[in-house]
Amino acid sequence: MAKPSEPQQPKQATSAADDGGSVPAHLFRQAVEQAALAISITDAHANILYANAAFQRITGYGQDEIVGHNESILSYRVTPKLVYETLWAQIQRQRPWNGLLVNKRKDGDRYLADVTITPVVGEAGITTHYLGMHRDVTEVHRLERQVQNQKTLIESVVDAAQVAIVLLDEQEHVLLDNQEYKKLIGDLGKEPAVRLLAALREQMGDAFAKAYDKHRNIAAREVCIEASGRPSRWFSCAISWFEEHDVGADAFYEPLRRHYLLLTIQDISELKRQQEALRINSLRALLSEQERIQSLRETLAGAVYQLEGPLNMLSAAANMMGRRRETGSDLPAASALEEAMQKSREVLETLRACIPDHNGEAAQPLNLNEILADVLKLATASLLGAGIVVEWLPSEGAAMISGHPAQLSNLFKQLISNAIEAVNEQRGGRRELRIACTLFADHLEVFVEDSGPGIADDLRYKVFQPFFTTKGAARQHLGLGLAMAQEVVIRHGGTIDIDPGYHNGCRVRVQLPLAAGGNHA
Ligand code: FAD
């Protein structure tokens, strides 16, 4: 330790004039003595000449124990040498220095000191003394570290979370995000949170605006984001708000509150895909069940139709014999024929009774765009297999009608499979299927167009007759598909025809009335 110079009393103001004011010199001494800050005055080598009461309280050294020692008595020797070198370089240039030093009290206890050293420059321009002031900031530092540790912990937990989390200010600027959110930026581009909030805003309308303005939380909501050229992505989004008190000096006595929005985003695209596959599979099962019933209806109706012809002939024969019976001839034969006919009618009635009814599916509001999209999904494998290029043009806005979803699905399934078959009949040439749904004031129109050979003008109406087929019995066609389609359309109060103005193949046109007030264009 450097040899301390002779302990001296700090240079005192001797008169009011020395201070340039009217404060008496002893008042300076009392003020320093009683200050809450640890104050020491050293010579030019940091040997302590004076220490106030707070200095003694903080360090544990009495005035007699400390005066004459170098300030280095306080050093705990873990403060890097460079810090001291900087300190001395600064004060030797006659500039104040401020920094944190690890100090040791008389009892060996360590504390963190926030130290300010100011050179006292004499009249000759030489530094004669140093004024040291320090505070014990151990507790402040501990609290700061604790906050920092908690922040790090929270950030690590947020970062490790399997859902994307992002914190936004009220201007929707991102303040904090996690790894999952960063992955979303990679997938969706900047800024996923803003896109998702816009989608929520559009989906929820006024309810979103109200909740947002009043800083109310929003429970998990499913949102779809369309990505160009890629499958749509589905997210479950939840919003929670929290308040923060402004930490600025202005807000010390008049607290200001800031609101922050915490958006949690869970990618549910895979779940949605599974649900959709499940839905399409159950629709496929429903339609194939309907198809089975339909073919039973067709077979029985066909049998009834086929039996009606000979029965009518028998009836005519019976009438003729009846007339002859009046003359007395062929009496037994006429009775036998009468009996046979009676039996045949009974069998026919039994057969008619066996024809299954349409199921009791209730009419309900439905969006025909969705039905058409589902039927197209069901036909995807056949369309791909046949190498047919599909153009699907849904109406702008929901195509709301009141109808029976399964029957309508079957109707369009029939039209699409007719179209696929027609295109397959062609060797070479275009292989196209175009389905368009257009909204009008009170009805909607669906076109199912194919690039097959088309239907001759003279057959445009006949094709809707039961048992009329252009394919022939060898190809297992009963000719009931379009008849069934017409039956469904009529049951829905609509019309179906073959467009005579279309010559690039066949265009089937279905018109259906819109549900009252159901067109959400
Ligand atoms: P030292 O050998 O004393 O010094 C380390 C380095 O400091 C040296 O390599 C040298 O570059 C520089 N240095 C030291 N003394 C001088 C000098 N007289 N002239 C030029 N360069 C020098 N230290 C604390 O740890 N805690 C305190 O609370 C504290 N308060 C201080 C208050 C005042 C008013 C002053 C002037 C200094 C204070 N110091 C304090 C610094 C203290 O004097 C020592 O420099 C420091 O404690 C390091 O001591 P040391 O024995 O480890 O190393």
From TrEMBL:
Q: CDD domains from the xrefs?
A: PAS
> Which residue ranges does the record assign to the Histidine kinase domain?
302-516
Top-level taxon of the source organism:
Bacteria
Q: Does the keyword Transferase apply?
A: yes
Record field: compositional bias (Polar residues): 1-15
Keyword Phosphoprotein tagged: yes
Which residues belong to any copy of the PAC domain?
A: 95-149
One Pfam family named in its UniProt record: PAS
- Ranges for the region named Disordered are 1-22
Key words of the record: Kinase, Phosphoprotein, Transferase
What Enzyme Commission number(s) appear in the record?
2.7.13.3
Q: Which GO terms describe its biological process?
A: nitrogen fixation; regulation of DNA-templated transcription; signal transduction
Q: Which reaction does it catalyse?
A: ATP + protein L-histidine = ADP + protein N-phospho-L-histidine
Which terms in the Gene Ontology molecular function aspect does this entry carry? protein histidine kinase activity
Q: Which residues form the PAS domain?
A: 24-70
PANTHER family tied to this protein: PAC DOMAIN-CONTAINING PROTEIN, PHYTOCHROME-LIKE PROTEIN CPH1
Protein's UniProt name: histidine kinase
Gene source species: Sideroxyarcus emersonii
